[in-house]
Amino acid sequence: MDLREKLRSRLSPERFAHSERVAEEAVSLAEHYGLDTKKAELAGLLHDCSRFLDRKGMLARARELGFDISALEEFEPKLLHAKLSAFFCREEYGVSVPEILSAVSKHTLGSVDMSGLDKVVYLADHIESERDYSGVHKIREQAYKDMDEAIICSCASMISSLLEKGLPVSEEGVRTRNEFLIRKHGQEKELGK
């Protein structure tokens, strides 16, 4: 069984279709920015490979694997899926390429230290063609102009949505937004904009 078929057999049809759309968007972004399209496609395809587990299953598996679990991850175990997916990429799908594992592990909340591939997969997950949330069209457009600006907008959208729903906000998501914002505005100040 090839990797794609193995993934299809483990995920729900909806989750597998989402993964294929993310892979397609990741390839498009990678082409646009001159990055490795094969790595982008594989990272996009496998980014949610742990999502066959429900919340309780994610928490149990993370504990079993000895993950350091934060209070927020304990409250919302779905936040563990990026780290779990990176683990499954390596252990169940035989992917050992560090750049792919990094992109998979950072696709949900981002990180203050993101490579081009990390950014591509993060944005592809947030803007794939079936995503429909307030501001997604602007983020899609921005993703092909300036990935850093698109990440700022995507983080802000996610934070705003969580606040509106009365849910806790991940510190990593806030750090990602703030770091990209500070870098962007710091560069603009240096350039006299």
Give structural notes:
The chain is mainly alpha-helical. It has one domain (3-190): Hypothetical protein af1432, CATH 1.10.3210. Helix content is 68%, strand content 0%. The chain contains 11 helices and no strands. It has helices at 3-10, 13-33, 37-46, 55-64, 71-75, 81-91, 98-105, 116-127, 136-143, 147-164, 171-190. α3 packs across α7 (98-105). The chain is globular, with a radius of gyration of 16 Å.
Topology overview:
Layout: H1 3-10, H2 13-33, H3 37-46, H4 55-64, H5 71-75, H6 81-91, H7 98-105, H8 116-127, H9 136-143, H10 147-164, H11 171-190
Helix pairs in contact: 2-3, 2-8, 3-7, 3-8, 6-7, 7-8, 8-10, 9-10, 10-11
Shape: globular
Q: Give the CATH H-level superfamily.
A: Hypothetical protein af1432
CATH secondary-structure class = Mainly Alpha
Class of secondary structure makeup: mainly alpha
Number of strands: 0
Give me the Rg, rounded: 16 Å
Q: Which fold name fills CATH's third level, the topology?
A: Hypothetical protein af1432
Count of individual helical segments: 11
Roughly how many Å apart are the termini? 54 Å
Sheet having the most strands:
none
- What is the domain tally? 1
Task: Supply the CATH architecture.
Answer: Orthogonal Bundle
Order of helices and strands: HHHHHHHHHHH
- Any low-confidence stretches, pLDDT <50, length ≥5? none
User: On the 0-100 scale, what is the average pLDDT?
Assistant: 94
Helix content: 55-70%
Provide the β-strand percentage band.
under 5%
